[in-house]
Amino acid sequence: QVQLVQSGAEVKKPGASVRVSCKASAYTFTGYYIHWVRQAPGQGLEWMGWINPNSGYTNYAQNFQGWVTMTRDTSISTAYMEVSRLRSDDTAVYYCARGINGARDFDYWGQGTLVTVSS
Amino acid sequence: DIQMTQSPSSVSASVGDRVTITCRASQGISSWLAWYQQKPGKAPKLLIYAASSLQSGVPSRFSGSGSGTDFTLTISSLQPEDFATYFCLQTNSFPYTFGQGTKLEIK
After folding, report:
1. Are strands B62-67 and A58-60 parallel, antiparallel or unpaired?
2. A73, B29, B95, B99 — which has fewest CB within 10 A?
3. A95 inside 8 A of chain B by CB
4. What is the mean pLDDT of chain A?
């Protein structure tokens, strides 16, 4: 069955960077976009952007341009999302999700990765 | 950015009740709207896409309607497993934006 398995929880200091991985299985990784969505504690969902695993092309929400980088390694069917210059308000659960229907809908999600930013 | 406003922010209902949640877009989004269900500590789950299409495997008691700026999610007969938070998501234009969520609680 289709699975997206994310890397484990991270604790980082302000100003540091974090990279979250998302390993896909049981489908053709290059055939579907990967989206990233985050959720601050007790808050709603925020779409961060997507990566086309086939081309490597990315599309970031303006709020994240310049300090979030999405990449992929097709040899191991894994997408990555790196956040630099972390601030306390970046504390959130970060999810990856597979895009379908022209990449507009997210049918499979990773389990989420909690990133805590604290001094 | 397109703002998505859900109402109500929370609702209490009983098993067997019919519940409707609404989502309003700040500008027209055609039918590019999806509904997701999220339970505590879990990833969201896709219920409805393209405003009214039921995702495979989702029970038929869930339905969606609307186009343009006004959308609804209806649960025809609440089941115990339906108590969760529901989010709408517009995918008409970037950045994609979610509603703030509607928490469905047991009365």
Report:
1. unpaired
2. A73
3. yes
4. 97
Convert the pLDDT of each residue in B32-54 to its tens digit: 999 999 999 999 999 999 999 99
- Class of residue B90 by CB neighbours under 10 A (exposed 0-12, middle 13-18, buried 19+): buried
Give the span between the Cα atoms of A27 and A31, in whole angstroms.
Answer: 8
CB proximity B101 to A under 8 Å: yes
Which residues of chain A have a CB within 8 Å of the CB of B36?
A: 45, 106
Q: Which residues of A touch B29 (CB under 8 A)?
A: none
Q: Is A61 helix (H, G, I), strand (E, B) or coil?
A: coil
Structure tokens at B102: 């509607």
Per the structure block, which two tokens stand in for B38?
Answer: 């999220």
Give the list of residues 6+ apart from residue A29 with CB closer than 8 angstroms, or none.
A53, A72, A74, A77
Using an 8 Å Cβ cutoff, are B63 and B74 in contact?
Answer: yes
Q: Which chain A residues touch B97 with a CB distance below 8 Å?
A: 47
Residue that has been written with the tokens 């970060």 in this structure:
A94
Nearest residue of B to residue A113, measured between CA atoms:
B43
**Could you tell me where the DSSP H helices lie in chain A?**
none
Q: Please list, residue by residue across B21-46, b when 16 or more beta carbons sit within 10 angstroms of its beta carbon and e when fewer do.
A: bbbbbeeebebbbbbbbbeeeebbbb
